[in-house]
């Protein structure tokens, strides 16, 4: 069970590096990530990895050119055999990396293009060119006759590789194998990202009163996080009143009223490492129905957290949560994402994924160094309110530790009457 109040032994020393304390060592972080990727590649059936997924590219090359590039699928990186990773980036970004990213050899930072999700038609030849370059790297590394793992790709890229006789396999699983155990530097970055949200929830607590709109809270959160040093506010859920049940997973311009429940999810990254962090409030006052729903959501949360330690499997966590029918849904697919757990790192959803939908039949064992979020949800019996809680957990040698510290032991009432 949760102690008197949430505490953490994981440091979150600040958003700057300083000369008088040891904080994140980015050279050590880069070395760790590339070594993990190499080990995962050697342990697989693959000879090389071709990555278009921005998170995998960052993991391999420690480069980033902003959230705007995430859906363009024109950046790609290759890790072939024991060779150094090679990056193809958007135009002048390649030259910038040669200036500012000295851990990449100059010849391994190249300008590249595939087609901007079809905006440049395949017959322009960019997919074919990229495929030839990838195959050339595989041949140079001595793995040209082995399968190539690809994480995500446009269909013409797959066709261009097939035209060269390349055997394409699923590379995302290999990269997720690499990324599932976090180093102390990664955990510190995740803790710092969560600490930033701790502070933002204090701002929400003070601002949440009748007459404020959901989108105003979203705007405030974005402003505050970017001022604190966030590199990407991926999303902010702001849900209130009758919108609480069922969960719509998107904010609106709704005006918040007295006595309503409101819950929020803050998803942002600090140096690439993400949060997913829900909290629920009552505005001014709370009903017994709202409090009862919150107590249930907290009990489900605590039951799963209490189990977390190395060797436990995800089916054991999911089993302590209610079935879909027990909280008003037709089946586990419809209820997916409500009683839920998911790994956190450079992506919002990494391993392990914890849910009654998948974990009961396909469990994953927990290991020291895993970091994941656990989420619970309970509709109130008034037909429209609901409680939503989320905690971020680090699996430690003997158990677990928390990253999320804004009060959630009981329903918090803002600006009480």
Description of the structure:
- With 417 residues, the protein is of the alpha+beta class.
- The chain has two domains: 45-170, Creatine Amidinohydrolase, Chain A, domain 1 (3-Layer(aba) Sandwich); 184-414, Creatinase/methionine aminopeptidase superfamily (Creatine Amidinohydrolase, Alpha-Beta Complex).
- Helices cover 31% and strands 21% of the residues.
- The chain contains ten helices and 16 strands.
- A hairpin with a 6-residue loop joins strand 11 (340-343) and strand 12 (350-354).
- Helix 1 crosses helix 6 and helix 4 packs across helix 5.
Outline the secondary-structure elements:
Layout: H1 26-42, E1 48-51, H2 54-61, E2 76-80, E3 86-90, H3 93-100, E4 109-112, H4 126-140, E5 148-150, H5 155-163, E6 168-170, H6 172-179, H7 184-207, H8 214-228, E7 232-240, E8 261-270, E9 273-274, E10 277-283, H9 288-305, H10 314-319, E11 340-343, E12 350-354, E13 371-379, E14 386-395, E15 400-402, E16 412-414
Helix pairs in contact: 1-6, 4-5, 7-8
Give the name of the CATH architecture of the largest domain. Answer: Alpha-Beta Complex
Which quaternary structure do these chains form? single chain
Give the low-pLDDT segments: none
Number of domains: 2
Q: Number of DSSP helices? A: 10
Secondary structure class reads alpha+beta
Rg over CA atoms: 23 Å
Instruction: Report the top-level CATH class of the largest domain.
Output: Alpha Beta
Helix proportion: 25-40%
Largest sheet: 6 strands, mixed
Mean pLDDT, rounded to whole units?
A: 96
Outline: globular
- Strand arrangement in the largest pleated sheet: 4-3-2-1-5-6
CATH topology value of the largest domain: Creatine Amidinohydrolase
How much of the sequence lies in strands comes to 15-25%
Relevant CATH superfamily of the largest domain: Creatinase/methionine aminopeptidase superfamily
State the order of secondary-structure elements, H for helix, E for strand.
HEHEEHEHEHEHHHEEEEHHEEEEEE
Termini separation: 31 Å
């Amino acid at each position: 069970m949760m102690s008197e109040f949430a505490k953490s032994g994981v440091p979150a020393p600040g958003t700057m590096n300083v000369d008088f304390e040891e904080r994140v060592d980015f050279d050590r972080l880069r070395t760790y990530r590339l070594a993990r990727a190499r080990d995962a590649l050697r342990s697989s059936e693959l000879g090389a990895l071709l990555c278009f997924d921005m998170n995998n590219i960052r993991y391999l090359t420690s480069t980033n050119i902003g959230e705007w590039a995430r859906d363009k699928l024109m950046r790609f990186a290759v890790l072939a055999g024991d060779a150094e990773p090679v990056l193809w980036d958007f135009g002048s970004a390649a030259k910038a990396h040669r200036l500012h990213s000295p851990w990449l050899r100059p010849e391994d930072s190249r300008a590249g293009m595939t087609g901007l999700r079809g905006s440049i038609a395949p017959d322009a030849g960019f997919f074919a060119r990229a495929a030839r370059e990838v195959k050339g790297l595989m041949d140079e590394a001595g793995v040209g006759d082995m399968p190539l793992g690809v994480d995500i790709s446009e269909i013409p890229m797959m066709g261009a590789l097939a035209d060269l006789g390349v055997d394409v396999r699923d590379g995302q699983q290999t990269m997720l194998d690499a990324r599932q155990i976090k180093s102390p530097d990664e955990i510190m970055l995740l803790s710092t990202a969560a600490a930033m949200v701790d502070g933002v929830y204090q701002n929400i607590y003070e601002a949440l009163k009748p007459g404020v709109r959901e989108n105003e809270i979203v705007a405030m959160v974005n402003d505050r996080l970017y001022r604190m040093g966030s590199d990407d506010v991926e999303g902010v859920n702001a849900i209130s009143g009758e919108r609480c049940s069922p969960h719509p997973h998107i904010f609106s311009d709704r005006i918040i009223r007295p006595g309503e429940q409101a819950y929020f999810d803050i998803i942002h990254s600090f140096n690439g490492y993400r949060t997913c962090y829900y909290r629920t409030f009552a505005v001014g006052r709370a009903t017994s129905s709202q409090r009862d729903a919150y107590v249930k959501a907290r009990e489900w949360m605590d039951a799963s957290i209490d189990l977390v330690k190395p060797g436990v499997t995800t089916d054991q966590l999911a089993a302590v949560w209610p079935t879909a029918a027990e909280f008003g849904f037709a089946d586990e697919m419809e209820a997916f994402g409500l009683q839920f757990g998911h790994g956190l790192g450079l992506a919002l959803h990494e391993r392990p994924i914890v849910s009654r939908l998948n974990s009961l039949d396909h469990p994953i064992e927990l290991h020291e160094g895993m970091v994941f979020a656990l989420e619970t949800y309970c509709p109130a019996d008034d037909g429209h309110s609901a409680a939503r809680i989320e905690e971020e957990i680090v699996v430690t040698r003997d158990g677990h530790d928390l990253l999320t510290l804004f009060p959630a032991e009981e329903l918090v009432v803002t600006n009480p009457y």
